[in-house]
Each structure stands twice: as structure tokens, then as C-alpha cells.
Amino acid sequence: MSIQPILSILEKLEKMHKSLLDYAHQKTELVKHNDVDELNNILKIEQSHVAAIEQLEAQRQEKVKEYFRAKGLKVSGPPTVAELMEAVEDEEERRRLADVRSRLMNVIEALKRQNELNQQLILNSLQFVNVTLNMLRPQAEPINYSGRMSQGGGASRQSLFDSQV
């Protein structure tokens, strides 16, 4: 059995992740320019990409399981590309598989870093908004008991509780 269908799926996964990386870069610029409407549009597109990636990953796992069954190997849990590389006997196929895996891992790592940057930008924007709101909002007087002296006729002393409240 050939691993070509698996390689094809991995290449599609790489393409989808590269597309997500492009959208992540666009989101960075949109956050910087405060373009919320376009940011929402990109988020919707990203959701469809994530759904497609989930489908491709399910297909990849199924094809790897088929490959293992055809080779008479047992699969424990979701099969990984590393496990597949160990099972592949043809050196050329193993090299192609390692190449696609390496490219996909690099794109995923870049996507992770870009998403972390976007998250930090959004948190900074939220902090700025909160500081601005706090400056514009009037400060409320602290609500606590004052140290008033009692107004009784005899000796005056300070009470811990304001009994008139």
C-alpha cells in the first residue's frame, strides 16, 4: 500500500494551516487599526478553516489506520505521523513523509506564535480601554462607617457600629 493518499492529506493540512497563518497576520493588522467588523469576518472564515482541518485530520487518521492494518500492525490510540514514519519501509516515502511533517510542524509553530502575539495585542487593547473608562468614570465615595462621636447626653465615646443605619 502506498502512502500517497496520506501525503496528499498532509499537504492539504499544510495548505490550510498556511492559510490560517495568513489570516492571523491580517488579524494583527486589523487589531492595530481597530477594524472590528473586518476582524469578525476573518474570525468566521477561520472557523470554516478549522472545521475543514478537523475533517482532514480525521481522514488522515483513518488512512494511517488503513495503512497499518494493511501492513498487519496494531494501532494504539490516534496514529501519529511519527509512528507512520517508523512503519514505512521505502526510504523515499519515509523522506517525503518527514519533509511534509517538518513543513507542517513549522507552519503550526509559526501560527501558534502569531496567535500568541494577537492575544497579547488584544489584552493590551482591553487594558487601555479599561484605563480610559476608569479615568472617565466618576469615583464613588468609599462606603464605610465614619468615626463620629455619639450624640448622647452623658459621656461621649466612639462606637464600633453606627446604630442609626
UniProtKB/TrEMBL annotation:
Keywords: Bacterial flagellum biogenesis, Cell projection, Cilium, Coiled coil, Flagellum. Residues 81-114 form a coiled coil. InterPro entries: FlgN-like, FlgN-like_sf. Gene3D superfamilies: FlgN-like (1.20.58.300). GO terms for biological process: bacterial-type flagellum assembly. The keyword Coiled coil applies. Residues 156-165 have a biased composition (Polar residues). It comes from the Bacteria. Residues 143-165 are annotated as: Disordered. This is Flagellar protein FlgN. It comes from Ureibacillus terrenus. The lineage of its organism: Bacteria, Bacillati, Bacillota, Bacilli, Bacillales.
